[in-house]
Amino acid sequence: MALFLLTEAIYKATRVQGTSFGLIDHIITNHTTNDIISGVVVDDISDHFFTYIVHDMPSKPTVNEFLFKRNFNLNNIQRFKQALSNETWNDVTDDNNVNSSYDKFWKKFSLHYNAIFPLKKIKRNINLHKINNFMTQGLLISRMTKNNLHKAALVNPNDLTIHLFKSYRNLYNKLLRKSKNLYFETELNLSKKNPKKPGT
Asked: What residue ranges do the domains of the chain occupy?
């Protein structure tokens, strides 16, 4: 009979109740620890944390891992206005051909636009960038506050920290449900006369 050597892949607590910590969610594998990546994801969806295991393999970036954004702050807008006012437009206004006139205008406009508002590649952060249309900026801030209160309750569990976290979590979940319901209700009303309209 073949002998299989099994090993535990999770080494941290997967459930925290007040001052009680327990490792009760196990992942058992016959791979060596050098071949796997495993761990615990702290979240407040349930009283058990998520456990995961990944066999060592080349990682592939997700499609939406990065965002491209332009910085439209007041200073940049002022710089853009100044650049356009300093530009010479005689070749645009003197050209009687509408197509070539537009091409000349667009070339100058886009040159200043891209120079002052360049596209910058930034890594997507679910705590800063919404992944759903019903997630507002206010809800993103509230989610960060909820997560911080959850960490505080885990690090220093007492009646106050636990009460603050649970109260804020319940309020956040209530607002999230309302925002989601409002978003889908609005989308359904917009699509009432066009049932073939794709969802957004």
From this structure: 7-55, 71-118, 126-190
